[in-house]
Amino acid sequence: MEFSYHNPTAIEFGEGKISTISDLIGKDKKVLFVYGFGSIKKNGAYDQVVKALKNHEFIEFSGVESNPTIETMNKALKIVKKENIDFILAVGGGSVIDGCKYLAAAAKYDGDAWDFLDGKAEVKDALPLGVVLTLAATGSESNNLTVVSKKEIDEKRLYFSDYSYPQFAVMDPTFMSTLSDTQLANGLVDAFVHISEQYLTKLNTALVNDGYAETLYRGLTKLAKNWDDRRTTLWQENLMLIANQALNFQIGAGLVQDWSTHLIGHELTAFYGIDHARSLAVVQPYLLRLMMADKGEKIAQMGKNVFGIENDNEAVIAKIESIYQSVGVTTKLSDLDIDDKVIENVTSALKSHGYTAMGENANITLDIVTQILKDSLK
Ligand code: NZQ
Ligand code: ZN
């Protein structure tokens, strides 16, 4: 066992915790308050932020879209520079948060900040960022990952930087009351795949990581089973906490990981605008079946410890599919709005991004990706 792990994001969890931002943001800071298309005006988050910032100077920037683009965030960047903003407050889901992580880094960079996404430059500094989370799914609120797109070239890319950790994340589950069933289901599936990308690789001896990952899996399985209760605070607050824990990278610390389902899914979203979680659900089951020789022992462990299924790996994968389907998320690419160029588009984009040998054993090649997509299209 060997790893470095440092997560500096302070978590304020629970109803009314938004009031803490009055003290968490220095009174001398000039704040850019960033959000999406107005969902925060329906669930009370907007009013509560304005109240909490009554002694701060702040400016608003809205219109950050799902799968945030640098085209939009560069408009915010102009405001940051012109107005001498020195704190960014992101209020929303993973998209607003990721857009703001990019913005915070871009504000301290002289060149074109897309350089961080295509690997030409590393983030060396960033403005401080705070988060109020309104949608449970990505874990972006307390991790160091940023995923943004460049519309001009239909690319969705990611980078890791310790400068991307928010200083704080307010997680008030009552803001989830306005989420649609689709958004709740997407969050559940995204979190499930986040655990899998860190867990479904090779056997390891780290009892803490696997034990905690299995607890999170069991929690999501229970939430899917209790889908009828999805409108209760109890259900929603558990999804909020599980999704957060699933991707603060603690369960993966020191372990080999495999993010290939995400890398393939990101290309599907870049071309066809498919919701992030839905892009994962049409990839993961087929990838697991094809990579059974590599992942079979962990699939068996998951079956035994999470679902009580012994010696039947196909039944484990079928169980994962049934969880996604039970919350209304399809596992077939053929059900989504794609075209007959999908395989060519995804494989050529992966190739141009250098993802030709993915997975814990670097053997998920473009031929395997082609087969995954063919199986999902059947
Ligand atoms: O724009 P508004 O009006 O705010 O509406 C948003 C948006 O339309 C709405 N919404 C948010 N909170 C709501 C709400 N609607 C009603 N009630 C609320 N309380 O939800 C819509 C989607 O929001 P979005 O932020 O796009 O969803 P999500 O949190 O799933 O984020 C997805 C993005 O995060 C990236 C994805 O690729 C995608 O771009 N990811 C980021 C990761 C990270 N940084 O760690 C990891 C993930 O694997 C993922 O790749
Ligand atoms: Zn994800």
Could you describe the 3D structure shown?
With 378 residues, the chain is an alpha/beta fold. It has two domains: 10-175, Rossmann fold (3-Layer(aba) Sandwich), CATH 3.40.50; 180-377, Dehydroquinate synthase-like, alpha domain (Up-down Bundle). The chain has 14 helices and eight strands. It has helices spanning 21-24, 45-52, 70-82, 94-106, 181-199, 207-225, 233-246, 260-272, 276-281, 284-290, 292-307, 313-326, 342-352, 366-377; strands at 10-13, 30-34, 57-61, 87-92, 129-133, 145-150, 155-160, 168-171. The strands form two sheets. The protein has a six-stranded parallel β-sheet with strand order 1-8-5-4-2-3, with helices on one face. A two-stranded antiparallel ribbon has the order 6-7. α5 runs parallel beside α7 (233-246), α6 (207-225) packs antiparallel against α7 (233-246) and α8 crosses α13 (342-352). The longest helix is centred in the middle third of the chain and has 19 residues, at 181-199. The radius of gyration is 20 Å and the shape is globular. The relative contact order is 0.11. The mean pLDDT is 97. Bound molecules: 5,6-dihydroxy-NADP (NZQ) and zinc ion (ZN).
Task: Describe the structure in brief.
With 378 residues, the chain is α/β, with parallel strands linked by helices.
Walk me through the topology:
Layout: E1 10-13, H1 21-24, E2 30-34, H2 45-52, E3 57-61, H3 70-82, E4 87-92, H4 94-106, E5 129-133, E6 145-150, E7 155-160, E8 168-171, H5 181-199, H6 207-225, H7 233-246, H8 260-272, H9 276-281, H10 284-290, H11 292-307, H12 313-326, H13 342-352, H14 366-377
Parallel strand pairs: 1-8, 2-3, 2-4, 4-5, 5-8
Antiparallel strand pairs: 6-7
Bound molecules: 5,6-dihydroxy-NADP and zinc ion.
Residues 138, 190, 193-194, 262, 276 line the site of zinc ion.
